[in-house]
Hints:
Elements lengths: L1 E9 L3 H4 L18 H12 L1 H17 L1 E9 L24 E3 L2 H11 L5 H4 L3 E4 L3 E2 L30 E3 L4 E3 L2 E6 L6 E2 L2 E4 L2 E3 L2 E11 L2 E4 L2 E5 L2 E3 L2 E8 L2 E4 L2 E5 L2 E3 L2 E8 L5 E5 L2 E5 L14 E3 L2 E8 L6 E5 L2 E5 L1 E3 L2 E8 L5 E4 L2 E5 L2 E4 L2 E2 L3 E3 L3 E3 L2 E16 L2 E2 L3 E3 L3 E2 L2 E14 L2 E2 L3 E3 L2 E2 L2 E14 L2 E2 L3 E3 L3 E3 L2 E16 L2 E2 L3 E3 L2 E3 L2 E5 L3 H4 L5 E7 L2 E2 L3 E3 L5 E3 L2 E5 L4 E5 L2 E2 L3 E3 L4 E2 L1 H5 L16 E4 L2 E5 L23 E4 L2 E2 L3 E3 L3 E2 L5 H10 L3 E4 L2 E4 L7 E4 L2 E2 L15
Parallel strand pairs: 3-4, 4-6, 5-7, 6-11, 7-12, 8-12, 9-13, 10-14, 11-15, 12-16, 13-17, 14-18, 15-19, 16-20, 17-21, 18-22, 19-23, 20-24, 21-25, 22-26, 23-27, 24-28, 25-29, 26-30, 27-31, 28-32, 28-33, 29-34, 30-35, 31-35, 32-36, 33-37, 34-38, 35-39, 36-40, 38-42, 39-43, 40-44, 41-45, 42-46, ...
Antiparallel strand pairs: 1-2
Amino acid sequence: MRKKYYAVIGMLTLGMALTGCGSGNGDKTGQIGSSSQTQSADQEAVQGGEQVENSDQAENSEQAEDEKSFEYEVRDLADPVYRSAAQDFSGGDGSEESPYQIGTAEELQLLSDILADEDKKYDYKSKNFVLTADIDLNDMTDFDNWSTSRPQYDWRPIGETYAFSGVFDGDGHTIRGMYINTNVDDDLYPDRGLFGELNGTVKNVDMEDAYVEVSGKSSYTGIVAGAAFKAVIENCNVSGNITGYDGEYGGIVGNAGVSTLKDCVFSGKISAVKDKSDFKAGGIAGYSSSYLVTEDDDVDKFEGIVNCDSKGEISNASSDSIMFNIGGIAGTNSGKVSGCVSEMDIKVANEENAQVGGIAGSIVDWNMMSDCRNNGSVSSDKGLVGGIAGDVLSQDARYKVVIDKCVNSANVSCTSGFAGIAGGVTVNTGDVTISGCVNEQDLDGDECAGIIYNLKMMSATISINDNTNKGRIKTSGLYGAGVIGYVSNMGDNWAVNIEGCTNTGDIDAKSNAGGIVCFTYFPSEKNAEGGDAQTSFDIKNCKNSGNITSKSIDGFIGGIMAVDGLMGTKVVVSGCDNTGDLSFTDGWAVDAEELSNYVDDDGEISEGFTLSVIAGGIIGRIGQSVFLSTDADTPDASKINAENALVQINDCSSTGKLSYVQPVKGDDVTDEQYNKIMENYRKVSLGGILGDCSCKGSYSVSFSNCTHSAERGVGNTDLPDIK
């Protein structure tokens, strides 16, 4: 039986949804939150009280304005049964030279009991402890049924109420059969694991057959520790199952702030049963951060997540959360991650706001991720999905986001857009660099790209350098690309530099496809009004060798970029090379049923109808109009090779073949209708360098030192060819 209770919390904004809270217990003075807002508030507290007050007032006002009731689910559980503790440890005095010795389950229980004792905790919480033998906390015979049948003993976390700040050395021994199944009623973020909150060191301990389930309100939950702050967890191999209802859940630790998680391995299952607010889950950490919290924080000695591996699966049974962040290593990361490998199979269903990644579900503000590999499948029916990161968000100019030398080698899928490296990258402000990354996996879906699906900029510097897509890209939607599927301009002060990127995979698209970039869209307000926005978009020294095909007769293909449309910003494409063939493979039978959608009351075919095919060895289409109607734009010869052209194509070459299939006359279509369609609504623009240019408004294009193997460099015969 389940009983329910209600709590009133604020409807979270994007930034607030990524915010965690300290557990608020006793001496937990260092606990950090889970977002840039929390960290920023802490920093401002050092710099000036007025800023904090204003920030708090704004946040409280926002919460009050969007107040919403969430229903939490709490299981009816039997009272916990704890093992009787030993009277004393086996030996030692707690010093570094002579740590307290723990060789039995009863002695391990003693450590838990002592740190829950108000009168004894200060005498022991900073001491040294060592395991002298393997320890069985329960009989593991019936482990697979522990979700419905409790074992004999429950485990109360060490430092559940008062953080452990000493050293716990497993000395290579194993703790088996830890069982935690509890409800959270009163504490907002209680911590659950072998350790509750950890401010010290846990090393050289293995844990097998651990079972942890936490229902009710939010929790920090991990098998080794619920929360770690300025802590070290090193050389720990862990296996078990974790079930969470709300909060932050990790195979090793739930919430890790300014800590080192090094040479650890998790094998097991993590599942979200019911989530009403904010759920983060990762094979190693639910949430990881390397933020500076106060001026005296010494973060340099803490390495973040280093050389950790995860194996098993993460899934959700049901969810209707505000945010749902799932990653093979970290659910949400705002810190350092290096040398990690995920083999977690991640499956998310029925979740509107999922951010799912092979390494990190979401990356927020400060991130240094390098040399990581995803070998586990990643799938979600909705949200943002990537082989390395589901979503990358930069919203604080003080911090940088770096993803370097990461590799995806496993299947990634989503009903909406996804990518081999990052599903979405949103840069409100700050610097973002994605470099040296490789997608090795074939991708097949509605819309997808080898490296980034959707890039959005407001005020930022974005560097996409030396990335490679090796997988075949197959799409059934509008956008497909070897590197970036879709670029959205949202601001007036940004620079995007794409340099040294390579696509070797074939692209089989339903509609639009680019070897490097598919589509750019949305003008800035300044440019839309004819102003001068401080924006630039550069593609330098990129190569495509994959063959690109479109099944559409109203699509765009570009060996480097399919469409530069509506951004109205300075674009420079230089030193790029295409050797892939570009082809439209479906001729499409023009039939009466299709025509009926475009015929007016007078029997005339509307201007929106087209049978156009447009492809360029370097760029498919340039211009303000992205409509394919043949009269959507009137070519203006003066826009070709114009001085200080908005789009400049320099030192580029293309040797790929250009081809298409002619449309055929369908059933019930008269010869007159067919001939009219072919004469007035058929446009073929295939160019060795540029397929077509709308040549309107501010749009103009120039060419310098470009070579190609096609009949024309500019496909539109109404425009001058490349000189």
